[in-house]
Amino acid sequence: MKKHLLSVLTATLFCSSVYAADLPPLQSDTEPDRTDWTQLTEKYGPLPAPDKKLKIGGVSKTLTNEYWRSLGEGYKAAAAKYGITVEYQAAANEDDQLGQLSIAETLISQGFNGLLVSPQTDANMQPAYEEAKSKNIPVVNVNDAVMPNAAHYVGNVQKDNGVRVANWFIQHYPKGGKVAVIEGQPGVYAAAQRTKGFRETMTKNGKFTLVASVPANWSRENAYNAASTILQQHPDLIGFYANNDGMALGVVEAVRSQGKSAQTAVFGTDGISDAYASIKRGELTGTVDSFPVLTGEVAMDVMLRLIAGQKLSRVVSTPQALITKDNADAFSTKDNDKLRQLLAQQ
292-307 and 66-82 helices cross at what angle (nearest 10)? Predict the structure, then answer.
């Protein structure tokens, strides 16, 4: 299996070098060719009526994480609205890179008209991308890991997740203090950018010390163990930032088990329902919600525009918001139109 994966990634690197002649490697956070999700209709006009025979494939990281299930709900809601077919599949877990690649390759072989993919790493889906490209099948990279050769990306500004959390600490702890980061999976652009945004903002402030930044591979259990060790080493720690909510909830358990809940703030990223519930109970301090259902709807809109022949920006930015106990109720609305209005007013 490891030898197979190595051969896949070697082929990926070759494909990337070939593709580099067409487009520079994508850095989704800083790509200047971008359109905000609120400006799609204004900039490109109404969505052309899609052919009812279209079949769109969605390939996700895993369905064990609520964020990715919610993203699929967005795909399905948009597909139902337009009367097209969507097939949403995911790997068994967030380490099953070859399983995810196989899903994408199967959808291509079955004649799907477009692929919405959320890669597990920045590299593992690139062979499927090259195959789809050779068959003129549009591919949209949706959030999280970023394929360097992707022609189109839909997602939030990942670095801003960490910046928003850092600014909260700066505002609420004017004297500074010790903080730590629980990172996601090494080699994933989103994890690196979220951590970078937090670290750079804290460093610039000059009053905080980042005492640890440890990868937990998106695992709640790993995050619990890492946070427990950090708290033992730094009992005066004032806060954690975790790269996703599952890990953040593991950190909350570690903080509570050591009697540090009143002292140590904990933030996550994604805005899953368990995070909202924990915030409302006064456990998790906050999260940066990136609204996966809405992101899925926007990504489907982008895909249908591409299939219709529209020339879109390379990046379409989707919304995010820092959620704490102060605004959790407002952002918990199930009214999608109300949520869109709330986000558009930010």
Answer: 40
